[in-house]
Every structure is written in structure tokens, then in C-alpha cells.
Amino acid sequence: MSAQQALNTNVLVVGSGAVGVAASIEAREAGASVLVIEQADHLGGAAAISGGGCCLADTPLQRQNGIEDSTDLAFDDWIRFGGGSADEVWARFYLERSSEDLFEWAAARGVNWLGVNGNEGNTVARWHRPEGGGGGIWHALHDTAVERGVDTWMTSTGANELIVDDGRVVGVRAGRGDSGGTIDIMADAVVMGTGGFASNLDMLHEHRPDLKQHRILEGSHVGAQGNGHRILDKMGSITTHMDEVWFYVFAIPDHKDSKGRRGLVVRGVPDGIWVNAQGVRFHNEDLTGGASGAPAVMSQDPAFCWSILDSTMTDGISVSDPQYYVPGTSRNDPEKVAKLIEESPSIVSADTLEGLADQIGVPPGAFIESVSRYNSGVDQGLETDPDFGRSLANRRMIERPPYFALNFVPLARKSFGGIKTNLRCQPLDKHYRPIPGVYAAGELAGMAGGHINGKNGLEGTMLGPSLFSGRVAGAWAAKEAGFGDGFTEVADRD
User: What is the predicted pLDDT for the residue at 493?
Assistant: First the structure.
């Protein structure tokens, strides 16, 4: 079917995740008409299935909890943890605006911030926990966008290419998955929020050929295929730090995936211990992050591990995937999780440790010694594990059968590099000139700017900057369309 020029809008937002809701609110509040398209058959993108935490600095909630923080302290932590390759300009921009322009902005639009957690790499607690997780944030902001008048959200509509007139982007040609046809949507400005490429194993291998030696699972939203990168590449945009990918290792293969590529993020097993293919512990299991747990597991030979639990520990298992949620929520359906534990070939059980060792193919002597040595430390009331420094306070021993083993495999979760932009979220060409008429935000742009996180990211530095850069992109897109004043690039400073 040939393309039909059927729709017009001031601001077209491509992608309905964090960027989609934030940019649509920002543009609509400036007075622009807004239309949102989404390639999937449902809205929400990666944001709606995320943990939802945002790394925010010097917020009212921190002060209420007696946490002393500052943007300078947060910036120092951010840059140090990023391994020297974070975009310092964007990091400073985000952190100086994170309290007023994300925490308070979101709270005024229905997000309920419940508490603040500490995470690896932070000097003080900064991971702000929203009610309902990522789904809670997304639904609150989506409801706000609809209330403001963003009433056209087209699902099963994926961008194929940008429409260009005299060097300027003036719209998008999109494919309609439900009809197989295409549609031209003309706009005064286009915001691209198409996500990363962590669910495209071929693209991952292109930028990280070293990963071919390991089994790596695709683990972002299913739509994170790098489509936006391809589209903007045709416009001459440049990318940066594309080899920097964030991995989770608390994940099992999805046995329902016919291609055997996708993984399921598994949480809620704080008392389990990890053993490698040799049946030996190798790491402090409290450190599960992408800068600690991921490299520890990926340095094993082969690069996977087993998380060992007993019968008292399985009730807390949660799975961060919509197929295990109660429909319309981001809460797990206990029956679906129980069925996964029963059916997944990556979760095995046995009535004895010897039997479990046999099931997972590890040397029984080394395996039983690893479990017994760990249990002994807990039983003796030691404060820390003498082998790896893990805190043993209030830990449970692995002693009540049946015993379980979860096959944890590295999972690509986030693209830390992406489309290089300026502080207005305009993609830059090879001469670092902005490409007119189009904006890029969220994971497409490495969360913000191209690589706001560097090599490592403090937890909450994915969703937070994606929402923030979505706001920035939406504000400047509205201004280009003739509405509002854009987004102030310099924060108020003392």
C-alpha cells in the first residue's frame, strides 16, 4: 500500500515510554498539539516494566529522611562511578535539575515518591522509589498527558523513516502493523524516543564482538531493536560510546522464547548464594549491579552461574516481565510465577544437595563444601562472610529441602551509548551541527546526550535521565513548532 498523508500535528513523539509521556506533557503544556506513535501493540515501552527508581539529588524526600546530599556530591559520585567516560555536561545539567524538574515535576503530575534507597556507588541514598515502580510512574504521567489533551496514541505504528524537506525533518513515514500499510504523519517537530538496542543481539555483537564468546540474553523491552539509530543514521547523525552496554546477571533464559534469545530478570532472592560451573562461590552476592555482579559472572568460565536457594526462599521471587504481571499492572501474578518455577528448565530442584549438584552438572564435593562453608558462617553468627565480605546479619541458611538452582545468564539491559545530542536534545551531524526539526532523548541517546552514564551507571540513572531528556526534547520541539520558550539550559545556582 502506498503511503497516505493523513495526519498533521505540531509535535510528533515516536515511542510511548519515558520519553513519550514526558515529552508529550511538556509539549502540550506549552500549547502544542501532540500525537504519539508506538510500534508495539501496547503503550509504555521499557519505562512501564522497569523497577522505576530514579537517581535524584538533594530532594525534599531526602531531607525528610535526614539524608544530607548536594548536587556536587552526586556529581562526584556519578563521574567516579562512570569510569571517566560520562558526559559531564549532561550529568551536571541533569543533577542540578533533578529535584525541581523531575522529583517535584513528577509529584505534581501524580507520581507518589515513597522512599529513598542506597545503591552501589552512591555516597548517600539517592534511589527514589515511586509507588508502583516503573509502571506507577508511567501510568501517572500518561494519565496526566491525556488530561492535558494528548488524546491520540497510535499503537502498532512504527517509524520507518523521517520525511525531509530542504534538509529539515517535517514528519515521519510510519508502518501500520495492524493493516500492513504506511502513513505519513507531518509535524512541525519530531521527538524520537525509540529506545535502545539491548533486545537486538545482532546489533549488540556488532558493537561488542567480544560478547560472541559468551551466551548473552536480550533483556530490554522487546521493541529495543535500534530502529531509531538506523533512522537517524540516514540523516547523518553521529553516535557515541555504542560499545558501553549495561548488563544484569540476575536473569534466566525465557523458555517461552522460540529463538532462545530473550531473558527474564529475576528479583527477590536476597539470601541465595552464587556458584559457578565448577560448583564454587566466587563473589559477594549482595553486589549484583552492572559494575559488580555483572563483571564477576562474566569473568567465569563459562560466563554464567547458579543461584542456590532452599524452600524458604522461593516465595519472594519476582519476574520483571509483562507476561508474569497481573494484567494492567506491574505486579506479579503469583500463579504465573509459581508456574515458571515449576516449568522453566533453567530452574531446577532436588531434595538433597547431592541431587542438586547432579542436576546442574557441578562437582558435588566442591558444591556441598561451598554451601556448608557459607551456612557455617551464618550458623556461627559471623557479621561478614570470611570469603567474600558479604554481610551475614539476619541471613537464612540454605538447609531446608527441596533445594533450587536458578541458571543466571548475563542479560543486556540498557544501551549506555547512542545518538549524540546537544543540551536541547538535537541530534548532531559529523560536524556537530544540529539536525533541524528532530530531537532524540532517552535510551536512543544513551539516556541523555549520547552517554550520560559513561561505562557504569548508578542505579536510577537510566529512567531518571530518560524522563528528564524527554522533557527537554518536548519543550524545544514545542518551541520549534511556535509554542513556549523551550527548556532553560542553566539551573538556578546559589
Answer: 47
Tens of pLDDT along 9-44?
999 999 999 999 999 999 999 999 999 999 999 999
The confidence band for 4, taking pLDDT boundaries of 50, 70 and 90, is low
CA–CA dist 88, 91 (Å, integer): 5
Handedness of CA 134, 139, 140, 144 (dihedral sign): positive
Set of cell numbers at residue 273: 548464594
At residue 297, φ and ψ (nearest 5 deg) are -70, -40
**418-419 vs 411-415, strand pairing mode:** unpaired
Looking at residue 40, the DSSP 8-state letter turns out to be: S
Q: What secondary structure does DSSP assign to 258-283, as a single string?
A: TTS-BEEEEE--TT-EEE-TTS---S
Which residues lie below 8 Å from residue 143, measured CB to CB, with a gap of 6+? 110
Using pLDDT thresholds of 50, 70 and 90, give the confidence band for residue 330: confident
Give which of 494, 384, 469 is closest to 22, Cα–Cα.
469
Phi, psi of 248 (to 5 degrees): -105, 150
| 214-267: pLDDT as tens digits | 999 999 988 999 999 999 999 999 999 999 999 999 999 999 999 999 999 999
Cell of 210: 567480544
Q: What is the dihedral of CA 16, 19, 25, 28, to 10 degrees?
A: -80
Q: How far apart are CA 87 and CA 410, in angstroms?
A: 26
Cell numbers describing residue 152: 491520540
Which among 17, 14, 36 is positioned nearest to 148, based on CA atoms? 36
Q: CB neighbours of 416 closer than 8 A, spacing ≥ 6?
A: 241, 244, 245, 246, 446, 447, 451, 453, 454, 455, 457
For residue 295, whether the previous peptide bond is cis, meaning omega lies within 30 degrees of 0, is no
Cβ atoms of residues 326 and 332 within 8 Å? yes
Residue 293 identity (one-letter amino acid) = G
Which class for 41: exposed (0-12), middle (13-18), buried (19 or more C-beta within 10 A)? exposed
Q: Give residues with Cβ within 8 angstroms of 443, minimum separation 6.
A: 46, 195, 196, 220, 224, 414, 415, 418, 462, 466
Name the residue with cell 528528564.
468
pLDDT at 461 over 60: yes
Instruction: Give the whole-angstrom CA distance, residue 494 versus residue 492.
Output: 7
Tell me if the bond preceding 427 is cis, omega within 30° of 0.
no
The helix/strand/coil state of 432 is: coil
Residues 6+ apart with CB under 8 A from 11: 23, 24, 27, 32, 33, 34, 35, 187, 188, 189, 190, 191, 474, 477, 478, 481
